[in-house]
Amino acid sequence: MSAPTRRERLRATTLSEIKDGARRLLVTGGVEAISLRAIARDMGMTAPAIYRYFPNLEALVGALAGDLYDELRGIIEAARDAAGGKPVDQLTAMCRAMRHWAVAHPAEFSLIFGNPVPGVAAFTDACADAEHPGARFGAVFLAPFLALTRGAALPGPPADVLHQQLGCHLTPLTAKHGELPIEVAYAFLSAWTRLYGLVAMEVFGHLAWAVDSPGALFETELAALLGQLRGAPDGGPPAGNGDGPPAGSARH
Amino acid sequence: MSAPTRRERLRATTLSEIKDGARRLLVTGGVEAISLRAIARDMGMTAPAIYRYFPNLEALVGALAGDLYDELRGIIEAARDAAGGKPVDQLTAMCRAMRHWAVAHPAEFSLIFGNPVPGVAAFTDACADAEHPGARFGAVFLAPFLALTRGAALPGPPADVLHQQLGCHLTPLTAKHGELPIEVAYAFLSAWTRLYGLVAMEVFGHLAWAVDSPGALFETELAALLGQLRGAPDGGPPAGNGDGPPAGSARH
DNA sequence: TAGTCATAGTAAACGGCGTTCACTTCTGAG
DNA sequence: CTCAGAAGTGAACGCCGTTTACTATGACTA
User: Where is this region: Disordered (chains A, B) (predicted)?
Assistant: First the structure.
């Protein structure tokens, strides 16, 4: 298994060249610009040859989405590892890395976090249990979140109200991560949807009518969110020691 | 100007028939399923005839997006008007109406609130100042929001910190609505992005890995959000007197 | 009423697309 | 050396958006 044959090497390079071409088209023209004929043309091939590597266009787009999930997850994990040991700094760096990647790669972000595209939807549904890419994302954010909120007075309704309102509707989340207190699970989902809403609205252009520099709004919102989690009175910034600007004006 | 000629009447009906067909295709197959040839086929026409009504496919999709904006805005305004005079009840009803429409019409929601689609992006950029559809949406939510938060102790950083961090980056929003205190503008944007993130994640299927009944999470989150705005200690539900379920399990 | 003219529609065509099928070339294992 | 299978080609089918030339017809005017 150690020595790949010559054919296997050629196949691997061709496969990655196909996905590189697909991503180039995605970046320049959006999802609908990805076409087998254009990819093959850029490679000096003909379109039917791609069918030796993917059963159809949708499967190619799905595989591309999977690669993008892994890429973003790696970036976020790297930001976490470079942020020191304090959970609040780790979470801050991870959220900033997420936004930074999304703003720098809007087409890629749209592919994996926007409208379900046929290929991506199939890819998302196919691995719905343990290896779901969204679930792995959640797990990455969940660990420092748990560390941060351990023993803290979380915002939101008290546990009994949560049990009454949410009941067992969070089982898909709690079943994956052992015994997760319901107030922690709720606080995590609340924070995750807040982060998503902020980043997605910026990337999709739905914030341009109201905000001049979305980066500033993001930093303010991030500070408020992490401050609320720690029970702070919504005060100062969360120790922006890492790479991101504590109160800057990120450029798009 | 009162009596439209026969030709004008025919033209109007044909135009709405075209948009009806486009919407039908949008609902059944997503944005990429909208095709001039399919619309014309359903109408018993040929595709080039549609060019008498729209310069190209993108313009048709943009017009459809504009209609959907108006439809959703009308529904939200109706929910507001049916919710009585208390701002908190109005906001509750409006948020519920927004989610209800989004869940009931995922394709339409995706078209106007998801990834920028060529035609929709052009439509969105074209009227970027006063008549921006997102801006009119914001205005609809802004009025009861202002009434609710008047004199209340808003969550989030104090005004001086906001001035330092956000500075004049909120001018696109404040310039449209007179003198808007910066803490109100920030609280409004924070609430709006939270609502968007919650609804968009549910509609796009990005919440299925964690939550069983997104409706329950929505109700909990909505109660917490409105409770925070009123300065309440994150307690009881916000007087669900209207139509929506106070703690129900909305079906998808 | 007869004439004119813009309007609404058609048919044909062009290029691009995903996908299939028959066919050729070439690699690598026995 | 042989040969099965992998990789790639070319042609074709049906779909698509869009353009062009052309026709019928409703509406206004002399």
Answer: 229-252
Question: Could you give the count of Cα atoms lying within 13 Å of B216 in the half-sphere of its Cβ?
Answer: 19
Structural domain contains residue B191? yes
B155 and B126 both lie in a single domain: yes
The verdict on B85 and B28 lying in the same domain is: no
Is the domain of B218 the same as that of B153?
yes
Is A203 part of a structural domain of the chain? yes
The separation between CA A74 and the C-alpha centre of its own chain, rounded to angstroms, equals: 10
Condensed to tens digits (0 to 9), the pLDDT of residues A150-195 reads 877 888 888 899 999 998 899 888 887 877 889 999 999 999 999 9
Does the CB of A36 sit below 7 A from strand C?
A: yes
How do residues A26-42 score in pLDDT, each as one tens digit? 999 999 999 999 999 99
Domain that holds residue B17: 1-53
The full DSSP string for A66-135 is: HHHHHHHHHHHHHHHHTT-S-HHHHHHHHHHHHHHHHHH-HHHHHHHHSSPPHHHHHHHHHT-SSS-HHH
Asked if residue B114 and residue B5 are part of one domain, the reply reads no
B87: which 2 tokens? 């701002």
What's the Å distance between residue B122 CA and nucleotide D21 C1'? 31
Predicted local distance difference test score (pLDDT) of residue B121: 72
Interface test with B, best of A209, A221, A229 (most B CBs within 10 A): A209
Same domain, B101 and B49: no
- Confidence tier at A130 by pLDDT (50, 70, 90): low
